[in-house]
Specification:
Helix content is 50%, strand content 12%. With 294 residues, the chain is an alpha/beta fold. The N and C termini lie far apart (59 Å). The protein binds NADP nicotinamide-adenine-dinucleotide phosphate.
């Protein structure tokens, strides 16, 4: 049900994610205008009380908030970078996935068009939208985030990361790096254990405990990285490298793929060769922080 006390909002792009966003605004009582290239995707939302704008230009009103959620930035410019769309005085929040350079460029483009602009990254799947589990990141001017936070709160747990428009995209990919590393490590361990008849479900609780335990180390390692000092209070990089060799040997001995541990050991070997063997593991930031040569 829409409630006229709530701020109006427009949602452009009603794919799987855009429909979830518009649905959450409606659920929270915001008068919600929607537009999508394929009009039929608006049917359910219209039945729930959304207004279907006849054109994309009509969906955007001066002084109001417009959420954009499209496949990519090309689609954003295809749709909105035209004289028939008036952006002056509007605020755009762009949840379209892209990289940090694209986000910063879009902010400059929006400024040229007279619009206020926040970039966003949705760290959730559509069914989670509207619940506290949906973590939604924003970057750009703090004042624009503050002005629209009461509306954005309808979507989930919303956070402002900083004024640099590229931050939301960078956090997005940094989060993906975490996700795939944890999943790949678990798959490596699962492949090893299956050779001894241990199934994935048996290993999963142990793996989860390991992941949580290692996560506890992050604040301490972060202090080392930020201070640039890596005293090995618990284990040196040399000790880690010897254990990496065991992981590779064991994987090869039981016929399991050893590519990933070899890649990680190659980085650690370079760090040892550069004289960091007696320091703690986080010194590897120096390998991660530069392009790979070779
Ligand atoms: P989707 O279901 O494929 O929807 C894509 C949307 O973009 C549709 O509304 C589509 O319109 C529109 N579109 C594409 N090209 C267009 C163009 N040239 N002109 C006008 N409209 C165009 O994708 P989605 O899952 O909603 O994802 C949308 C964005 O959210 C992506 O950047 C994605 O990375 C991000 N995201 C998605 C998820 C997720 O779990 N789905 C999670 C986090 C972030 P039509 O309907 O007419 O084709």
């Amino acid at each position: 049900m829409t409630n006229t006390n709530e701020a109006p909002v427009s949602v452009i792009g009603l794919g799987l994610m855009g429909q979830a966003l518009a649905g959450a605004f409606l659920e929270a009582g915001h008068p919600t205008t929607v537009w999508n290239r394929t009009t039929a995707k608006a049917d359910r939302l219209v039945a729930e009380g959304a207004r279907l704008a006849p054109t994309v230009a009509d969906a955007i009103r001066p002084g109001s908030l417009t959420i954009v959620c499209l496949t990519d930035y090309d689609a954003l410019y295809d749709l909105l970078d035209t004289d028939s769309v008036e952006l002056t005085g509007t605020t755009l929040i762009n949840f379209t996935s892209g990289d940090s350079a694209q986000a910063r460029e879009a902010a400059r483009w929006a400024e040229r068009r007279g619009a206020r602009y926040l970039d966003g990254a949705i760290m959730a799947v559509p069914p989670a939208i509207g619940t506290a589990d949906a973590v939604i990141l924003h970057s750009g001017p703090q004042s624009d985030f503050d002005a629209h936070k009461p509306t954005l709160d309808a979507l989930g747990t919303v956070t402002h990361l900083g004024e640099d428009h590229g931050l939301a995209s960078l956090y997005d990919v940094a989060g993906l790096a975490m996700m795939w590393s944890i999943l790949n490590a678990w798959l490596q361990g699962t492949a090893l254990l299956r050779t001894a008849g241990v199934d994935a479900a048996t290993f999963a609780p142990f793996a989860r405990q390991m992941a949580a335990g290692v996560a506890e180390w992050l604040p301490g390692h972060a202090e080392s990285i930020d201070s640039g000092s890596f005293p090995a209070d618990v284990a040196s990089l040399d000790t880690h490298v010897r254990s990496m060799a065991h992981l590779i040997e064991e994987s090869e001995a039981v016929g399991v793929n050893a590519e990933l541990p070899k890649l990680i050991k190659a980085m650690a070997d370079r760090s040892v060769a550069a004289g960091h063997g007696a320091e703690e593991y986080a010194v590897l930031i120096e390998e991660f922080a530069k392009p790979h040569e070779g």
